[in-house]
Design brief:
nine-stranded mixed β-sheet, Spore Coat Polysaccharide Biosynthesis Protein SpsA, Chain A, 2 domains, 299 residues
Length: 299
């Protein structure tokens, strides 16, 4: 069984170095790193690595995580002989037991993709990377998810079938990835790219397993208050609205009511922001651009 890593990076060289140390210590057959046109010393550092497993790809421009994973997936589909692709950001570090434990799971189960348990710096479950066992697609479901999230996400330590996965700690069969690259939409830049991609796959009948035995560390602060920097909320808002364009009516991950409720929640979160005016400006821009279908990098 051949396993490859796909990592996307942009201007986070120190974190990338830690990511490389953790990744290269594992017996991956190939390690593909997409440099999203970094302006720091990332490119020269990658060129200095002497490891035949490394494939360093330099993107022409920064197309965000969405564009980076699309580019890397295209490269793997056409140039890498592998069975499984492990996808993660430059600030995510695989546990040293990851490949050993995955080999055991792959022998016992027959899923097209697996998602790992992702922990933050304090060892707490990283909520942004938790998959859905049931998508809260409607307004009523979204209210239910806010009130009782355990009805829509798996218990932290209990394996479960899920319908989405995060690109931090996703493990997907190469043939499935290669056949569905078109659903990794660079237009999104960041946020919702992995959710929309995985939800689209689940609609086609592919099966995913949340596997808490498989662990990643995501180098983000525990319980971080607010959305920082404020421009990130722009993509959270805009990309919700872009789903109306990217999906056919009967396949959309969120109803209009669910989208409005989620945007209202983002807007009301301005109270926890340090730069409240700037934050509200990005929310409004996200609404305008989402309705007018403006996509790509806009900050």
């Amino acid at each position: 069984m051949r396993c490859s890593a796909l990592i996307v990076t942009f201007n986070r060289l120190e974190k990338l170095k830690q990511c490389w140390a953790a990744t290269s210590a594992l017996p991956f057959d190939d390690i593909v790193i997409v440099d999203n046109a970094s302006t720091d010393e990332t490119q020269s550092w990658l060129h200095s690595i002497e490891d035949s497993r490394l494939h360093a790809i330099r993107a022409a421009q920064n197309d965000g995580g969405a564009g980076g994973f699309r580019l890397g997936s295209e490269y793997i589909a056409s140039k890498i002989d592998t069975d499984w692709v492990f996808m993660f950001d430059d600030d995510a570090y695989p546990d040293r037991t990851l490949l050993t434990r995955f080999a055991e799971l792959a022998q016992r189960f027959d899923y097209e993709a697996y998602c790992c348990r992702v922990l933050d710096r304090q060892g707490t479950l990283c909520k942004m990377n938790v998959p859905f066992s049931k998508m809260p697609t409607s307004l009523v479901n979204t209210l239910g998810y806010i009130a009782r999230p355990e009805r829509y996400i798996p218990a932290e330590l209990k394996p479960a079938d899920v319908v989405t996965f995060s690109f931090v700690g996703a493990i997907i069969r190469k043939d499935v990835l290669a056949a569905n690259i078109e659903y990794i939409w660079p237009e999104l830049f960041i946020y919702y790219d992995d959710l929309y991609f995985s939800y689209r796959l689940s609609q086609q009948g592919y099966r995913f397993r949340y596997s808490p035995e498989l662990v990643f560390l995501h180098d983000v602060p525990a319980g971080q208050g607010g959305i920082n920097p404020p421009w990130k909320v722009y993509y959270l808002v805009r990309n919700l609205l872009l789903s109306r364009m990217l999906f056919k009516k009967h396949e959309r991950p969120y109803s209009l009511g669910a989208i409005v409720l989620r945007i209202a929640k983002y807007l009301l979160s301005f109270t926890s922001q340090g730069k409240k005016g700037e934050y509200i400006k990005y929310v409004v821009r996200g609404i305008v651009d989402g309705i007018s279908r403006k996509n790509g990098k806009q900050h």
